[in-house]
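Inverse folding, one chain.
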């Protein structure tokens, strides 16, 4: 009797494996999936690739929601005051980057990684650039 292959479960396992090994989210760049696809019946290939993508992104989402993810703690721990000045455009951010100081989210002049005396971070910190 021929062994039945669960194509979807195998593709999902390969998707999780691809995420854990930091592959890009492109199934055709995942060597194990490409090899596995050679064994998949033609009418199931689209389903297998979709299962791979779904598992990859579910693993990614799980990590982002995980309490072991340091950014989770940072977002929960740091509650910056709302900006009181307009967000700078990319040209102004680049100009500040060449200077030793920049603007805080309330207009105060501070260092790139600083927080002003009113508790407002630099735009670089607020936007997550540094």
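Residues assigned per position:
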């Amino acid at each position: 009797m021929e062994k039945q292959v669960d194509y979807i479960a195998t593709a999902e396992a390969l998707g999780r494996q691809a995420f854990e090994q930091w592959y890009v989210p492109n199934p055709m760049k995942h060597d194990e999936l490409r090899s596995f696809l050679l064994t998949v019946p033609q009418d199931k290939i689209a389903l297998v690739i979709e299962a791979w993508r779904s598992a990859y992104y579910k693993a990614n989402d799980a990590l982002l929601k995980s309490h072991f993810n340091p950014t989770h703690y940072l977002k929960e721990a740091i509650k910056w005051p709302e900006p009181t000045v307009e967000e700078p455009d990319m040209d102004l951010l680049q100009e500040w980057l060449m200077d030793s100081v920049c603007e805080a989210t309330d207009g105060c002049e501070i260092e790139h990684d600083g927080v002003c005396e009113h508790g407002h971070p630099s735009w670089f910190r607020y936007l997550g650039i540094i």
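The chain is about 50% helix and 5% strand. The helical segments are 7-20, 31-37, 45-65, 70-77, 90-98, 123-126.
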